[in-house]
Amino acid sequence: MMEQDRLAANLEQVRRRIAHAAERAGRDPAAVKIVAVTKGVPRATVQLAYNLGLRAFGENRVQEALQKFAVDPLPAEAELHLIGYLQTNKVRHAVKLFAMIQSVDRIPLIQELERRAERQGRRIPVLVQVNVARETQKHGCDPLQAAEIVRAVLEAPHLELRGLMTIAPLSSCETEIRRVFAALRTLRDELQDRFSYPLPELSMGMTNDFELAVEEGATMVRIGRALFGA
């Protein structure tokens, strides 16, 4: 089977699984955006995914994204999201390259993003990453710090807060995973009320758990292996 055919079959299966999960939750499948995770995926394969209709792509590292897209950028109607940890010293590249930064989790990063975005004359959409499960090996702010981080983003004129992001534990316990996603949704609702500010996006769910995420309200699912293989 040719690479494009295999990718097309994988995409069709992912879309079908999203649709079934959305229907189980009484949601419109069209309300869930696939962010194709292209870490380790060659630029030519990313183009095949674009040709099949995908429009949002996620990279974990600024350096890899630069190597792939600085010389050969995505078409204008596609968007590149940073979904991995952003070091402060990489912000100057990130604000030029990414349409959205999903991993905002600390005040110094917000300050540097604001400074660089102002210099670029951009207003950058961002998500606040929350470490709902409080796993020490994962990035993201503590849920108890989320309000402070949200306030700092809302006070930054060149950042546009769109919602929250989380990564669930790598677990075979469906109840544990679902609890994390439900907790992020509840936190989002509380923050919307507290700040009287809409936070429409919930980025949660990856290849292992995206159906549970959709059932719990995800508006973005970050899919790599289920599309591109291991």
Query: Biggest β-sheet, characterized?
Result: 8 strands, parallel
Low-pLDDT parts are: none
Which architecture name does CATH use?
Answer: Alpha-Beta Barrel
How many independent structural domains? Answer: 1
* Helical coverage, percent range: 40-55%
**Number of H/I helices:** 9
The CATH topology is given as TIM Barrel
Mean pLDDT over all positions:
97
For the record, what CATH class applies? Answer: Alpha Beta
Number of E-state strands: 8
Strand content: 15-25%
**Structural class based on helices, strands and sheet pairing:** alpha/beta
- By CATH, the superfamily comes out as Alanine racemase
Could you state the order of secondary-structure elements as H and E?
HEHEHEHEHEHEHEHEH
- First-to-last CA distance: 17 Å
State Rg. 17 Å
Which strand order do you get reading across the main beta sheet? 7-6-5-4-3-2-1-8
Shape: globular
Features:
alpha/beta, TIM Barrel, 8-stranded parallel beta sheet, 17% strand
Give the topology, please:
Layout: H1 3-24, E1 33-37, H2 43-51, E2 56-59, H3 62-69, E3 79-82, H4 91-97, E4 100-104, H5 107-120, E5 124-129, H6 146-154, E6 159-165, H7 174-195, E7 201-203, H8 210-215, E8 220-223, H9 225-228
Parallel strand pairs: 1-2, 1-8, 2-3, 3-4, 4-5, 5-6, 6-7
Helix pairs in contact: 4-5
Overview of this protein structure:
By secondary structure, the chain is α/β, with parallel strands linked by helices. It has one domain (3-228): Alpha-Beta Barrel (TIM Barrel). Helix content is 44%, strand content 17%. The chain contains nine helices and eight strands. The chain has helices at 3-24, 43-51, 62-69, 91-97, 107-120, 146-154, 174-195, 210-215, 225-228; strands at residues 33-37, 56-59, 79-82, 100-104, 124-129, 159-165, 201-203, 220-223. Strands 7-6-5-4-3-2-1-8 form an eight-stranded parallel β-sheet. Strand 6 (159-165), helix 7 and strand 7 form a beta-alpha-beta unit. Helix 4 packs across helix 5.
